[in-house]
TrEMBL record:
The keyword Transmembrane helix applies. It is found in: Membrane. Residues 139-279 form the Fatty acid hydroxylase domain. GO terms for cellular component: membrane. This is Fatty acid hydroxylase domain-containing protein.
């Protein structure tokens, strides 16, 4: 279980900004801090209902296949955006892969897009592809969205706005793709403007297209999730080969330094604007090289390992690399869990056939590294005589592995003893 490309799970000294984060959460929320539907729980997804109803009604009763096609596009795009965030969240939490090597904003932006399209239906008649639209979208992004976000981000770090709004985004002690969407209602309204400028700008000058619309939004989400992930995925040799590229695209390491320091690296996606604003952290590229190079992959051996096993098939659904909405409810059981039971059963069979003991999660406590390893076997398997040899082999390999890498304490769960 050699570590690879791990960035950030290190203890840092509490700085004044972090103290502000803690204290700010106790104050009364200012205007536009919370979401209008924050008390609806999962019923908030019913806000997509009017789009679905309009689409079905227009197709069945009015036979309008083009006028309301934007309803379908918004629903598809919202689903794809949720998938992008889910996949990044899953990958970020697959510690056995990448450490060894809230959907409110989607509802908001779907609602804003719907309102704009209702006010001006003419923008819905877009071609599938238009090369000039891709070019104009990139120009609008670099020329307007990037600098506007940079200065708004710096404004959000001023004492007034940070203590009332932006502290929420920085309240995550460890970066996660969730962090990309973890912000106040006001901040996401501003982000709607940032994201909307290239799309609307290109469309209003006659160069919009459906591919441009889908592509820009999904790439925007992809890069936001990548920057807030807790793993480095950008190899440093790209920057060695093409030095200018490092000013055109940020990395998880680059944005991590912003969350740690809070006074540098304010850019949206392009560090070039931190160069112009003289806010680039001077060690950004050296740290990225160290983390993504072979030297950065040398693992620190955990001092304590707890060797556990799966309890039942349903426990897979609670894993942090499964569905985000399920992993946040560790003791719950609802319809979503039972609908995913067949998939969980299939995963169980695959783990039984191929998987080896893997790193499930890890944490630091008072400077000491703790690991939680999981034997890929379930509770009921320990009572199947034909499965005992395989289980014992898994446990033996894990013990030998722990001894080889220098683990000081190995604790076994009940059935693994």
């Amino acid at each position: 279980m050699e570590t690879q490309n791990e960035i950030m799970l290190v203890e840092t000294e509490t700085c004044s900004d972090e103290k502000r984060v803690c204290s700010s959460g106790k104050k009364r929320a200012p205007i536009l801090f919370g979401w209008p539907w924050q008390n609806l729980s999962n019923f908030k997804y019913l806000l997509f209902g009017p789009l679905l109803a309009e689409l079905i009604y227009s197709r069945i009763y009015e036979k309008k296949h083009s006028e309301y096609s934007w309803c379908l596009h918004i629903l598809i795009l919202s689903s794809l955006r949720g998938l992008v965030h889910q996949l990044w969240s899953s990958y970020n939490n697959m510690h056995y892969l990448n450490r060894n090597h809230r959907d409110n904003f989607i509802i908001l932006e779907a609602s804003v897009a719907s309102i704009i399209l209702l006010i001006n239906p003419s923008v819905t008649n877009l071609p599938v592809w238009k090369t000039s639209g891709i070019i104009s979208c990139v120009i609008f992004h670099i020329g307007l969205s990037e600098p506007l976000y940079y200065w708004l981000h710096r404004l959000l770090h001023s004492e007034y706005f940070f203590e009332r709004y932006h502290w929420l985004h920085h309240s995550s002690t460890v970066n996660n793709p969730f962090t990309a969407g973890h912000a106040t209602f006001l901040e996401h309204l501003l982000l709607c403007v940032i994201m909307g400028i290239p799309i609307l700008g290109s469309t209003l000058i006659g160069h919009g297209s459906i591919i441009m619309f889908y592509g820009y939004v999904l790439v925007f989400d992809f890069l936001r999730c990548m920057g807030h992930s807790n793993i480095e995925v950008v190899p440093h040799h790209i920057f060695d080969t093409m030095p200018m590229v490092k000013y055109l695209i940020y990395t998880p390491t680059y944005h991590f330094l912003h969350h740690r320091d809070m006074k540098t690296n304010f850019c949206l996606f392009m560090p070039l604007f931190d160069v112009f604003g003289k806010t680039m952290y001077e060690i950004s590229w050296d740290l990225h090289r160290e983390i993504s190079s072979n030297e950065g992959t040398k693992a620190k051996a955990p001092e304590f390992v707890f060797l556990a096993h799966m309890v039942d098939i349903m426990s897979i659904i609670h894993a942090p690399f499964f569905l985000r909405s399920c992993s946040s409810l560790p003791f719950a059981r609802n319809i979503i869990f039972f609908l995913n039971w067949p998939l969980a059963f299939l995963v169980m069979l695959m783990m039984w056939a191929k998987s080896k003991t893997f790193l499930f999660t890890f944490w630091y406590l008072r400077g000491r590294l703790f690991h939680y390893w999981v034997v890929p076997r379930f509770g009921f398997m320990y009572f199947i005589s034909s499965a005992k040899d395989g289980i014992n082999s898994q446990i033996e390999e894990a013990i030998l592995k722990a001894d080889r890498i220098g683990v000081k304490v190995l604790s076994l769960a009940a059935l693994t003893r």
